[in-house]
Amino acid sequence: MVTAKETTQHRGRGARERILAAADRLFAQQGITATGMEQVAEEAPVSKRTLYVHFRTKSDLVIAHLQALASSGKTLEGVLTLEELSPRERILRLFDQPATDLASVRGCPFIDAAAEFPDPASPIHAYAREQKLLMVRLVTALVAELGCAEPAALAEQLVTLADGAASRAMVLNEPDYGRHARAAAQTLLEHALPRDGSACGEVPT
């Protein structure tokens, strides 16, 4: 029987947000598979009953966590939709590590999630794949806007650099490691885009 106290907890304002915030901290610090639902409930803090009211399974929680990250703009992909930046600058910002409160460098959460759930049929792996495919679609549109003759091929090269740099930055715990990939990306752009710069928002000389 659900008590009045439990009902209040279930409907408590901010419970879902506290759960997601706790999951974000724990997943970043120790990984998804190493984090139990009971630990998330304690960190939130909410009762286990409240946790399962909002998220029936751990898979539901993980996907909601990844969705929240995707919509926050605090991932590699987040810069690609910043309309105040030029297409070229959005692409080059892929090589800057997103701001974080963590003491150590955090890699791409979508790659991390896919690695922890390697089965392609897993809903978590599938969501991570969707975000990586969205990333390359966004970059393809940007390089096409810049006038690249083969935008799909260039976009794949750029996102491969960005994902690789993010992974190495995490392994080496080096926040500015992306500078190496950024230099390579600039070279790719210079060779792939029109020489006169007219498609890049520059005035031909």
How would you describe what is shown here?
With 205 residues, the chain is mainly α. It has helices spanning 4-10, 15-30, 37-43, 48-54, 58-72, 87-92, 109-116, 123-145, 151-172, 178-192. The longest helix is centred in the middle third of the chain and has 23 residues, at 123-145. The protein is elongated and about 60 Å long. The protein starts with a helix and ends in a 13-residue tail after the last helix.
Gist of the model:
With 205 residues, the protein is mainly α.
Give start-end ranges of low-pLDDT stretches: 1-11, 197-205
> What percentage of the residues does DSSP assign to strands (E)?
under 5%
Summing up helix and strand content along with how strands pair, one would put the structural category as: mainly alpha
Radius of gyration: 20 Å
- State the end-to-end distance: 78 Å
Shape: elongated
Q: How much helix, percentage-wise, in residues?
A: 55-70%
User: Given the structure, what is the number of helices?
Assistant: 10
* Largest sheet properties: none
Number of strands: 0
Order of helices and strands: HHHHHHHHHH
| Average pLDDT taken over every residue | 87
Keywords:
205 residues; mainly alpha; 10 helices; 61% helix; disordered N terminus; disordered C terminus
Task: Set out the fold topology.
Elements: H1 4-10, H2 15-30, H3 37-43, H4 48-54, H5 58-72, H6 87-92, H7 109-116, H8 123-145, H9 151-172, H10 178-192
Helix pairs in contact: 2-5, 5-8, 7-8, 8-9, 9-10
